[in-house]
Amino acid sequence: MTPEKFREVIESLGQTPVVLASVFQELSQADLELKDSEEFSALENICHLRDLEIEGYGERIVRILEEDNPFLADFDGARLAIERDYNNQDAKAALAAFNDARSRNLSLLKKLNPEQIMREAILEGVGVINLEKLIEMMVEHDEGHVQELMTISRRSQRRSETGMV
After folding, report:
1. d(Cα 160, Cα 153) in Å, to the nearest integer?
2. How many CB atoms lie within 10 A of CB 132?
């Protein structure tokens, strides 16, 4: 990854909290909890992102930097959503915790040198990855959840416009 591309990726990761805050301002508590399908509700999305940022990405980044070839366990977000009853948690607290964790992770990532970015680990279900790949996975994961939240927001707006609450 070129230094320019690395800066773009870090900038993208830094924009996710801004986008999430914007989407969440538009949703009522009922909209946050509403599930139209088997996908996560908006609230479940943010709780998932929070927990993955803290227990998944945060821990993985540190372990890759501190250990030689660590084995990184998979993160079962669907299981945690049920076990932790995401849909009954506080959205503002979850968003704040995600923002704090993302800020800490970005602060660490911004300090990395090219050698550190190439450090490797074994990610369960994926295989050998390096920190660069993990960072790319973070961006892809963010993009998927942002799209899902935008879809939820559009549905909410359509329901409001048509009087369906």
Report:
1. 11
2. 19
Q: What is the sign of the dihedral through the CA atoms of 124, 129, 130 and 136? A: negative
Within the chain, strands assigned E span 71-72, 120-123, 127-130
List the chain domain ranges: 3-162
Q: What is the largest CA-CA distance in the chain?
A: 57
Query: Which residue's entry shows tokens 């800490």?
Result: 104
What does the pLDDT read at residue 163? 67
Pick the closest to residue 130 from 140, 110, 115 (CA basis): 115
φ, ψ for residue 69 (rounded to 5)?
50, 55
Q: Which CATH architecture describes the domain 3-162? A: Up-down Bundle (1.20)
Amino acid at 161: E
pLDDT of residue 29: 87
Q: What is the pLDDT of residue 164?
A: 60
Blockwise average pLDDT, block size 10, the chain, 165 residues: 87 95 88 83 95 97 97 94 95 96 97 94 97 95 93 81 65
Measured between alpha carbons, how far is 14 from 103 in angstroms, rounded to an integer?
8
CA-to-CA dists, residue 32 to 14, 62, 152, angstroms: 23, 32, 9
What pTM did the predictor assign? 0.91
CA distance 66 to 148: 34
